[in-house]
Design a protein that fits this description.
about 150 residues; mainly beta; Leucine-rich repeat, LRR (right-handed beta-alpha superhelix); about 10% helix; about 10% strand; globular
Length: about 150
């Protein structure tokens, strides 16, 4: 299966069999559900995953190892969830990310090491959050590559 979509349902958690059985999926769509959390290693077996749609859920935090072996991941969308903060290393294994969307959450703080620097990153959307200050290092690390803020 190349594309899996469970958009617009009442799912409150992603069963572990999803990433264990859908290892060849390139795109997964769990948008518009009631998902509140992702488990450690949630997508670690989805090694071909390129696009993940999680907008319009209730996710508050990403575990540091949620995307363990997802080196092919290029696009993630977590707009309109319940994020308040980021852990420093949640993207450490996602070296090919180009587009990251976290707009319309409740994010208040962006840690310096959030993207130490992601070479392929082109879009990082933090619009309509509650951010009071962006660390200077964040922009310095990413602006040279034309990242859109």
């Amino acid at each position: 299966m190349i594309t899996f979509s469970a958009r617009g349902n009442r799912i409150d958690s992603i069963p572990s069999f999803i990433s264990n059985k859908l290892v060849s999926a390139i795109s997964m769509d769990f948008a518009e559900n009631r998902i509140t959390e992702l488990k450690e290693g949630q997508f670690k077996n989805a090694t071909r995953l390129k696009r993940l749609f999680m907008e319009d859920n209730f996710v508050k935090v990403l575990p540091e190892s949620a995307f363990g072996n997802c080196e092919t991941l290029v696009f993630i969308d977590f707009r309109r969830n319940k994020f308040k903060r980021f852990k420093n290393d949640w993207l450490k294994d996602c070296k090919n990310l180009t587009h990251v969307f976290f707009g319309q959450n409740d994010i208040q703080d962006v840690p310096k090491a959030l993207f130490n620097p992601q070479a392929n990153l082109r879009t990082f959307d933090l619009s309509n959050n509650r951010i009071k200050k962006l660390p200077v290092e964040f922009a310095e690390q990413n602006q040279e590559r034309g990242v859109q803020f």
